[in-house]
Design a protein that fits this description.
This protein is mostly beta strands and 176 residues long. The chain has one domain. The chain contains two helices and eleven strands, in the order ααβββββββββββ. The strands form three sheets. It has a five-stranded antiparallel β-sheet with strand order 3-4-5-6-7. A four-stranded antiparallel β-sheet has the order 8-9-10-11, with no helix packed on it. The protein has a two-stranded antiparallel ribbon with strand order 1-2.
Amino acid sequence: MGKGQQWFACILLLTGIVFAPIMAGAELNILMLKNAVYSTVAWNTPDRFEHRVKLVNGKYEHQGPDGVTDHEEVEMGKTAFGDLNGDGKNDAAVILYHNTGGSGTVTQVAAVLDVNGQPQHIASRNLGDRTEIKKLTIKKGIIFVTVDNPRFFPGQKKTVKYRLVGNKLIGPEPFK
């Protein structure tokens, strides 16, 4: 093999290594989740979707013409990976913070499935206004969220569990 052929073979090898995960249908990762489409949960419901937003680098922002009443922000928080639907693929739980311009920020946990190597937000649960997430994990298909809301429920830090059933996250409202 000549010097030019060796160089070309090295480039092909390196290109194959760099792009192999994409071509083979890579597992969900943080970068995919930070640039996925999510549905926000309506303020006064545990799980009813309001509308869809596309995150870019973990954030979405819409600024209306008056700057206050037509302002919306969604920001991604903690994430955890694990199989949520029993298909053997790594899915994700993602914390989203949703603010529509007022003083409150709704915290939601989103179940995101790996569908053909792409993130698909399937279900969410509203965790309350200004709820802090201390820990987020997935074990044996169950999402564990350790929450605290010192402003409205001081001293009530707790861990709540959610299981994906169809397109719903089944589990308690943490502060009811």
